[in-house]
Amino acid sequence: MAESVSLRRRKDKRKERAMKKIAILAVMLALVTPVMAATSVTIDACSVGTTGNVAIIYNATGGDVSGFGLNITIDNSKNLTAIGGYHIGESNSTSKGYGIFPGTIDINDTTGNVDSYGNPVAPSSDPCALGGLGTGGITIEIGALYTTGNAPGRAGTLCTVMVSGDCNLTVALNQRRGGVVDVNYLDATTPGLPRTRHIHKVTTCTVPNVVGMSNAAAAAAITAAGLVPNGSPVLSCVTLNQVLNQNPGPSQQTCGSTVNYDYSRYETTMPNILGMTAADANAAITAAGLVVSGITWNTSSTVDINTVMSQNPTYGTILSCDPHSPSYELSSGCYPKGKGDYSTWRVQASPNFKTHCWCYTRQCHGDTDNATGGTSKSGYYYVGSADLGVLLSNWQILDPPFGSGTPAAGRCADFAHDLGGTSKSGYYRVGSTDLGVLLSNWQILEPPFGSGMSADCLNVP
C-alpha cells in the first residue's frame, strides 16, 4: 500500500476535489485490498498531571487505523475548555501522528496542495456534532495522511483536552462523524466504548513571590504557576521594569485567577512642595527619587518666611529618573506694610526693588544684618557699628532721575520705611529718620544683660 488517509464517507465536496487533486491518494485507493476482519481498537482517557489536562489515548491491534470520529463529554456542569496535543500536517518519517481533520481540511483547487489541515473539533452545526469548546461536549475528527512506512504508531495519544474542574469524562464513538476506521475502510471494533473516567483538576495554585523580579520574569513565573499575570507600569525610580508589589501575595488561589502587580517605569512625578519648609521640600524631592539642584530666596507679601513660594518644574510634571534635578524658591518673609509710595516696592519685578533684610524681625529698629555684636561676657546686641556703617555708606543717595538710587543692600538701612527729600531736590531712602531709629536702639543688650530689642518688624503697620 503506497499511502493511507483518513477520508471515510465524507460528503463534503472538498473530499472529491482532494481525491482528484492528490494523485497519490488515487494510487493508494487502487492498491487497497479489503480484509474481512476489522482492526480492534481500545480508546481511553487519562489525566496528565493535576491541572485538568486529559489525554485521549488509543491502542490498535491487527492493523493500522486511518481515522477517528469521537464524542467527548463531561458532567457536573463543567466545560471542555481547550484541545491540543494532536499532530499537525502529514505523518512523515520525522513526525508521525494523526493530523488531518476531514471535516475542515482545505485543499487548493489549483495546486492540489493542502492549504489547511483544519480543526479537530467538528463545528456544532455539523450533523450529530456536540456543542464544542466551552461546553460539556465536543466531537473530534482526526485522521492521518502518510506515505508507505510513515503510518502513525498503533498506540499513542490522539490529542489532549482541558476540563474546567473535577468531572467524569466519557469517550464514545460518533458513527455519523466516522467512528473508528481501519486503513481498509472497515469499521474497527472498539471494545468497552463508551468509556468513562473520573478526572481530578487541582482548583488552587500557589502564587509565587514576584516582588523584585523583572516584569518579564514575573509574568513567566505567574503563568507557570497556573495563574494569569496582570502587570501595570507605575511611576517609580526603582530599576526599570522591576516589580514593586503584587496582589495577592504568596498564597493559595484559584487556578486561572489573576495576580496583579506594579512594575517601575523609571519615571516619577514632581511633588507639590509649595508652602513646605526647606527641610520638608528636600525630603519630598528625595522621596520622589530626585535630587535638589538649587535653592534661591525671594521676598513675598503673601508667603510665610522660610517656606517654598515657587518650584521648577511644576507639580505633576513627569520626570525621568536620571535623576532630574528640580529647584525651588524660598520666601525670605513679607515686606512690612509701607507708607506712601513704599507700597510699590512690594510689587516691583526688578530685583533692585527687593531686599531680604526687610524681612528681618528687627530691621525696623536699626538692624541691617540680623547679626549680633558684643561678647558673651559683656552681652550681645543687634544694633551697632556694622549697622551704622551701612547707614552712612548709603546716606541720602537720591533716587532717579536725580541719582543712582539706593542699592538693595543699602535699603537695609532704611529703618523708617519712608522717603526723605522733595520732588524738586529728589527723594532718598536713607536719612535722618533712619539715623534716629538706629540711635534710639543703639547697643541695647539682650537678656540677661538688658531688656533686649523688640522683634516685631513684620507686624509694623
Describe the structure.
The protein is an alpha+beta fold and 461 residues long. Strand 2 and strand 3 form a beta hairpin. The longest helix is centred in the middle third of the chain and has 10 residues. The chain starts with a strand and ends in a 21-residue tail after the last helix. The relative contact order is 0.09.
Annotated CATH architecture of the largest domain = Sandwich
Number of strands: 27
Average pLDDT rating: 84
Number of domains: 4
Please describe the biggest sheet, giving its number of strands, its sense, and whether it closes into a barrel: 5 strands, antiparallel
User: How far is the first residue's CA from the last residue's CA?
Assistant: 116 Å
What is the 3D form? rod-shaped
- Rg (C-alpha, Å): 46 Å
- For this structure, the quaternary state is single chain
Low-confidence stretches: 1-36, 336-353
Give me the secondary-structure category. Answer: alpha+beta
What level of helicity do the residues show? 10-25%
CATH top level class name of the largest domain: Mainly Beta
Our estimate of the beta-strand percent is: 25-35%
The CATH topology of the largest domain corresponds to: Immunoglobulin-like
Tally of contiguous helical segments: 6
Keywords:
five-stranded antiparallel β-sheet, Trypsin Inhibitor V, Chain A, alpha+beta, 461 residues, four-stranded antiparallel β-sheet, Immunoglobulin-like, 6 helices
